Structure prediction request, 155 residues.
Amino acid sequence: MNLTPINVYINSNLEQKNNSVKDFSLYLCDVLSSIKLLHWYSDEYNFHKILDETYESFDDLFDKLIEEIIGITKKVNNFNLEFPRRDVKKVLDSCSLEEQLKELLGVLESLENTIKNNNMDSFIKQNSFNGINNTIEEILSTSNKCKYLISMIKW
Ligand SMILES: [Fe+2]
Prediction:
């Protein structure tokens, strides 16, 4: 008798129930890694520098956001956010500056959609935790600043 399907079912259920904040943490790490890889493999100095600053800002803000969320979910376990997982290695397939820019814009768009998600909104409202709103605004502002600075590069 093969019990594997039952084990898989139980494990995936546990994962869904207990690891949604952990999954979200991994997603944010994917965003950071994607930006760092684009920073390392860009041949355009200004693009390289802007990604460096964006990485630093996101690193601090993601740390703040996740620690706030962990703080809340220790008391109330109602975090249920939908977000895409990114294949970080895909970033390395982008070779030209145009491809790297397209990849970066995809990363930023995915991040913006994820943190502006309705479930995130209801999670914040349900817990009356407005501090997270400020952190989210700062993340959106960093993303907008990054896009603005990149638009000034003379390609
Ligand atoms: Fe660097």
Helices lie at 4-18, 20-40, 45-75, 97-115, 118-126, 131-151. The two ends are 63 Å apart (CA to CA). The pocket of fe (ii) ion is lined by residues 39, 52 (CB under 6 Å).
